[in-house]
């Protein structure tokens, strides 16, 4: 059975502030710059979730991407879209919401919510058109 990767892209907008409470305001500003604005700011995120598995001989699918879309909405997008990542998302509590920390948190939200035999292959998270991160699990 051939192994194929399939990707679903979703979009959401969230507010955040990059900040370490154990650092001074000056140090936060120096390291995190505009992303440390105390009055928040937002990003328009693009999230690419890639799954991998054998092609089902009956359906011709790795997995039904409708189900992936549904899992993405229920586990991630519904929680974060038009929300503040620092104050309104339980699974980001206590996490400095860099794109790196966010992509790992998203991985953990999804890894056990895929059909039997289908694995997470990679997640790409774009915070801006110029800045993105990728995570392939540990
Ligand atoms: Ni930012």
- How many structural units, i.e. domains? 1
What do the pLDDT scores average to?
Answer: 97
The first-level CATH class is given as Alpha Beta
Number of strands: 5
Distance between the termini: 26 Å
Uncertain spans: none
How would a crystallographer describe the biggest sheet?
5 strands, mixed
Task: Explain how this protein is built.
- By secondary structure, the chain is of the alpha+beta class.
- The protein has a single domain (3-135), classed as Tetrahydropterin Synthase, Chain A.
- The protein has 3 helices and 5 strands.
- It has helices at residues 25-32, 65-80, 99-110; strands at residues 3-16, 41-54, 83-84, 119-126, 132-135.
- Strands 3-1-2-4-5 form a 5-stranded mixed sheet.
- Strand 4 (119-126) and strand 5 form a beta hairpin.
- The model has no long low-confidence stretch (mean pLDDT 97).
- Bound molecules: nickel (II) ion.
- Nickel (II) ion is lined by residues 16, 35, 41, 43.
List keywords for this structure.
138 residues; single chain; alpha+beta; 30% strand; Tetrahydropterin Synthase, Chain A; binds nickel (II) ion; 26% helix
Short description:
The chain contains three helices and five strands. The protein has 138 residues and is an alpha+beta fold.
Q: How does the SSE layout of this entry go?
A:
Layout: E1 3-16, H1 25-32, E2 41-54, H2 65-80, E3 83-84, H3 99-110, E4 119-126, E5 132-135
Parallel strand pairs: 1-3
Antiparallel strand pairs: 1-2, 2-4, 4-5
The structure holds nickel (II) ion (NI).
């Amino acid at each position: 059975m051939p192994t194929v990767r399939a990707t679903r892209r979703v979009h959401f907008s969230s507010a955040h502030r990059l900040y370490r409470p154990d650092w001074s305001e000056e140090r936060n500003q120096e390291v995190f710059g505009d992303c440390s604005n105390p009055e928040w700011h937002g990003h328009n995120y693009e999230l690419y979730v890639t799954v991998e598995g054998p092609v089902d001989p009956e359906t011709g699918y790795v997995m039904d991407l409708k189900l992936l879309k549904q899992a993405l909405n229920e586990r991630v997008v519904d929680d974060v879209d038009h929300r503040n990542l620092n104050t309104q998302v339980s699974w980001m509590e206590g996490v400095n919401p860099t794109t790196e920390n966010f992509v790992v948190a998203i991985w953990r939200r999804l890894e056990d919510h895929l059909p039997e035999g289908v694995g997470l292959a990679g997640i790409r998270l774009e915070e801006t058109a110029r800045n993105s991160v990728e995570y392939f699990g540990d």
